Amino acid sequence: MANPETKPGNQNYQKRLDEVIRSLPDLPRKPALLLHACCAPCSSYVLEYLAGFFSITVYYYNPNIYPPQEYLRRLNETRDFYARFPPALENDVRLVEADYNPDDFYAAIDVQNHPERAHEAEKGERCRLCYRLRLEHSFRYACQHNFDYFCTTLSISPFKDAQKINEEGIAMALRATENHPKNSDCRTPAWLFSDFKKKGGFKRSLELSAECGLYRQNYCGCVYSREKQGNPPEL
Predict the structure, then answer these.
(1) Which phi and psi angles does 106 have, rounded to 5°?
(2) DSSP secondary-structure letter at 59?
(3) Complete DSSP assignment for 74-99
(4) Distance in angstroms (rounded) separating the CA atoms of residues 127 and 84
(5) H or E stretch including 152?
(6) Cα 33–155–13 angle (5° rounding)?
(7) Reduced to 3 DSSP states, what percent helix, strand and coil does the chain have, rounded to the nearest 5?
(8) Residue-wise pLDDT tens digits, 66-79
(9) Measured at the alpha carbon of residue 193, what is the angle toward residues 156 and 154, in degrees to the nearest 5?
(10) Is the pTM of this model over 0.90?
């Protein structure tokens, strides 16, 4: 079982990630990381950065993306990009495509009972609940398949709240460890800290997107973020 890292709180999560990487044992087998990803551009730099230290499986679970055509466009771009991106090819990065069920997203954010969430700016409570949904789904998969760590590419975006993302991931790992049967052979994956936008990460993702000709969307993914960019809902 991987050890839990620390309790949530204000921290330099990029510094903590560097500390974890420096502490990795020098073994023939790299630790297994389940990396949730939302699209090809956001995962480009993250794979370039981490693939040399971890055996990475990318988990594509994004029921928030609207409309379905956009979801498929981002998924296909991700699939095609990994098939030609050297860090993914040289390090045997795998892609797992989870089910697409938008009802999961709408149930999680519960706009029906909290209509104010539909009008929030990015980084609000709606976004926190969306982070939680996607991380919980990823965490369950990581537990079931005995990964050492789990993480997400979401913190690379300047429009995402890295503090909230890390708080959610840390809390999940801690709760699972506290409730884990002592005689279980299953591993509870540790949360891998991240603030991938730091150290020029976001800038590098822009460079890689341009170099590789990647489609960069102009909104986060959900119908509410889409409307804030002046795009009407699909009929």
Answers:
(1) -65, -35
(2) E
(3) HHHHHHHHHTT-HHHHHTT-EEEE--
(4) 32
(5) strand 149-152
(6) 80
(7) 50, 10, 45
(8) 999 999 999 999 99
(9) 25
(10) yes
